[in-house]
């Protein structure tokens, strides 16, 4: 199980607000979560997505395309991947490990 920290940045929007584009991305992620492919968490600065690496890359490509589908001509997507293979851990497990040390 891997975790991806992803930020999709539409460039050239009419206003400084991008919440409309963030909402579109969240709708795509909700669809995949209902299918059982991924789980995700929206944060104020990015979205964390958890699942099998191959599924994550497919989902990231789909959310990268979302602003183009609304007429944006340029999109920058930042991706950071945490792929630990010695044991299965979820996002909550990583947080609990830190909390236990506090």
Automatic annotation (TrEMBL):
This is Thiamine-binding protein. Gene3D superfamilies: 3.30.70.930. InterPro entries: MTH1187/YkoF-like (IPR029756), Thiamine_BP (IPR002767), UPF0045_domain (IPR051614). Belongs to the UPF0045 family. NCBIfam families: MTH1187 family thiamine-binding protein. It comes from Bacillus salacetis. The lineage of its organism: Bacteria, Bacillati, Bacillota, Bacilli, Bacillales. It holds the Pfam family Thiamine_BP. SUPFAM superfamilies: MTH1187/YkoF-like (SSF89957). Residues 4-99 form the Thiamine-binding protein domain. One of its GO terms (cellular component) is cytosol.
């Amino acid at each position: 199980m891997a975790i991806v920290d992803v930020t999709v940045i539409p460039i050239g929007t009419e206003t400084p607000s991008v919440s409309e584009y963030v909402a579109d991305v969240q709708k795509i992620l909700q669809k995949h979560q209902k299918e059982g492919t991924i789980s995700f968490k929206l944060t104020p600065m990015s979205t964390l997505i958890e699942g099998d690496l191959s599924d994550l890359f497919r989902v990231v490509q789909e959310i990268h395309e979302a602003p183009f589908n609304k007429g944006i001509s340029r999109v920058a997507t930042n991706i950071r991947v945490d792929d630990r293979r010695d044991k299965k851990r979820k996002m909550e497990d990583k947080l609990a490990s830190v909390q236990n040390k506090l």
